[in-house]
Amino acid sequence: MRINSKKFQNIIIIWLFSWLLLFVFLPNLIIIITSFLTHDDKNLIKIIFTLNNYKRLFNSLYANVILNSINIAIITTLFCLIISYPLALLLTQISIKLQSLMLFLLILPFCTNSLIRIYGLRFFLSARGFLNNFLLYIKLIDKPIQILYTQKAVIIGLVYILLPFMVIPIYSSIQKLDKYYFEAAKDLGANKFQIFLRITVPLTKQGVIAGCILVSISAMGLFYIADLMGGAKNLLIGNIIKNQFLYLRDWPFGSAISITLTILISGIAFLLSYYQLDDYKA
């Protein structure tokens, strides 16, 4: 029985290793090598190694797009956190049946393609959409507000799509809190605000960090949201990669941007994970 169990374990390990090798390591290795090759109009690439693809990233045009992507990712993460924390806290205060229903409703949009949801949001925010019509009807505005094709629209779209990725880790961390901490704090005379500030917030830090990692990393790569909501003036780094591969067919430069984005995202994930690990040790 033990031999069979060991064989099964080895099969799983080999299967996982093969999957990582074929679908993670090799594609990334190809992208890394391509990023150091030279662009060729006829054959896409020429086997001439160069660093020019990375040097082009220091061009002000691309540097501004990278900074804009980081800026939008930070703002999106902050908005998701501000909305998600009170929402997750409220979810834990209601009955279990209602919690299950609310969580189901939170996850339900995932059953629909995110592209369709973004088209729905576009219609809602458009000049003749429901929002503007409603504001005009109650005479709060005199003319439609231009929301689409601005940076605000990109951030609204990202928050709309990524909000569940922040709510669920925070909700999970709040759910795991030991109620005895709250009772002890009450016995010692702490009020609700003090309990929240000194017990709830520090002990749910892990969920907040996990949510921030998920949202910030995803926010930089969702190029179709920037395409549909922000137009040509509000590009993310993902849009530049898409354009290089699909339209300009400059695969070496597209690969160089992809590697830069991977390093950037890995750096953010490492810093947040290190902070999380450091918090565990403390």
Could you explain how this protein is built, in words?
- The chain has 282 residues and is mainly alpha-helical.
- The protein has 2 domains: 1-49; 56-279, MetI-like fold, CATH 1.10.3720.10.
- The chain is 75% helix and 2% strand.
- A two-stranded antiparallel ribbon has the order 1-2.
- β1 (38-40) and β2 form a beta hairpin.
- The longest helix is centred in the N-terminal third of the chain and has 34 residues, at 2-35.
- The two termini are 42 Å apart.
Q: What topology emerges from the helices and strands here?
A:
Layout: H1 2-35, E1 38-40, E2 44-46, H2 52-55, H3 60-91, H4 96-107, H5 114-125, H6 130-137, H7 151-175, H8 179-187, H9 192-203, H10 205-219, H11 223-230, H12 237-246, H13 251-281
Antiparallel strand pairs: 1-2
Helix pairs in contact: 1-13, 3-7, 3-10, 5-11, 7-10, 7-11, 10-13, 11-12, 12-13
Question: Could you describe the largest sheet, including whether it forms a barrel?
Answer: 2 strands, antiparallel
Order of secondary-structure elements = HEEHHHHHHHHHHHH
What's the N-to-C terminus distance?
A: 42 Å
Query: What gross morphology would you assign?
Result: globular
Mean pLDDT: 87
Q: Under CATH, the topology of the largest domain is which?
A: MetI-like fold
Kindly state the number of beta strands.
Answer: 2
Helix segment tally:
13
Total number of domains: 2
CATH second-level architecture of the largest domain: Orthogonal Bundle
Briefly, what CATH class of the largest domain? Mainly Alpha
Looking at this structure, what is the CATH superfamily of the largest domain? MetI-like
- Helical fraction equals over 70%
Question: What integer value in Å does the Rg equal?
Answer: 24 Å
